[in-house]
């Protein structure tokens, strides 16, 4: 059949549109979409060990979460450095992005929750002692947010390259530490004990630090960027709490109260994590306002 307006045959639906747009179709000598994204490596990284259909879900969910955590670390490290340089506008953008990444991680549990207990039981023997508890990226995120614990270095002792990365995060001041240093540079009193301390120890709340934040929150117009920083930190911890809670409920739904593959108490361990407060004074000050 011929097109009434042209002498050549009519192209199949959609094909002519591609041609008129000038889309490149030959990639024999040029970089393609798959080349740029290294899709051969990414899409061939799923190696199920069991014959069960559902293991692919388990692998993809955890691999994609690790990719999001890679981006989260990229943004967190840059935000901490920007705050240290008093460059708050880019830091705000980075922290807002981290909060959005956390939203993605929260919703990832919705997909994993479609795995039923019998389905998980079919693949569990193939996991050995591997567990998300051992994720070095997650540990760096926890350390960057101030939840320091020297025992969490041990799962990485068999990999000196990864241990060095986690150890660096453990020894460095975290996001909240840099925020407090910034407040002090702005002339608001912050105790010396919270400006120069042993960064390998978990953060301890301080009444003086709470008063410093109250100075900011009681007069936002005079301290607008510090006020905004406080709210960015609040957003981030809010999202992180949701992620932890969704993790807990998904694990309980799928495995109940069994011990984790990595040796933790499973649900009991995750419940303890719910009680961890990363930026305590920012939450406590709301009662006094």
UniProtKB/TrEMBL annotation:
Record family assignment? Belongs to the tryptophan 2,3-dioxygenase family.
Residues that, per the record, bind substrate = 58-62, 120, 124, 261
* Gene3D superfamilies reported in the protein's UniProt record: 1.20.58.480
- SUPFAM superfamilies on file: Indolic compounds 2,3-dioxygenase-like (SSF140959)
- Which organism is the protein's source? Ideonella aquatica
Stated EC number for the protein is: 1.13.11.11
Q: Which gene encodes it?
A: kynA
Binding-site residues, heme: 247
Query: What GO MF annotations does this protein's record show?
Result: heme binding; L-tryptophan 2,3-dioxygenase activity; metal ion binding
Q: What is this protein called?
A: Tryptophan 2,3-dioxygenase
Names of required cofactors: heme
Q: Which GO terms describe its biological process?
A: L-tryptophan catabolic process to acetyl-CoA; L-tryptophan catabolic process to kynurenine
Q: Does the keyword Ribosomal protein apply?
A: no
Which chemical reaction does it catalyze? L-tryptophan + O2 = N-formyl-L-kynurenine
Listed A to Z, the keywords are:
Dioxygenase, Heme, Iron, Metal-binding, Oxidoreductase, Tryptophan catabolism
